[in-house]
Amino acid sequence: MNHRILSATREQLIQQLIFFDEQYSLFFDHYVRDYGKEKQIVDALVRRYRETLEDILAQDDSELSQSLQNVTLLGSSVSVRFEEDGYEELFTVVFPTDIDPDHNRISFLSPIGRQLLLTAPQESLVLESPVGRQPVQIKEVSFSYRGGFPGQ
Fold it and tell me: Which residues form the Transcription elongation factor GreA/GreB C-terminal domain (predicted)?
C-alpha cells in the first residue's frame, strides 16, 4: 500500500476512535434497544474494538498495512466460506448508517456483523443467523472503508 493510501486509512481509523469516544452514548441510544444483556454485549464488543484500533494505530506503516489484512475492522470486507457446501460469500462490516443489503454491507451491530468483527483469516466459527447455525471459515480480510460516520 502506498503512503498516501496508508495515511488516509490511518485517518479513517482515527476518526472511528474519535467517534466512539465522543458520540458512542448517542449512537448506542439510537441503535441498541435492549439495555440489559444486549448493552453488555455491545459495550464489550466496542471496548475490544477500540483496544484493537489503538494497538493497530500504534504500529508503523508496514505493520499497519499487514494488520489491515489480519483483523476484521469496520470497513473490512470478509470472505467467508460455508463449511457445509463450500460456498463463499463476501461481507463488508460497516456502521449501521452505511448498510446496503444488496451489496452485503452489514452493520457491525447485526447478528452476523457482531460475529465477524475482529475475526482473522483462517479462523473458524459457527455463524449464528436467523436461518440457523452454520460452521464457516474466514478466508480473507481486506480493509477498504469508504463510508462516513454517524453524526457527520
Answer: 74-142
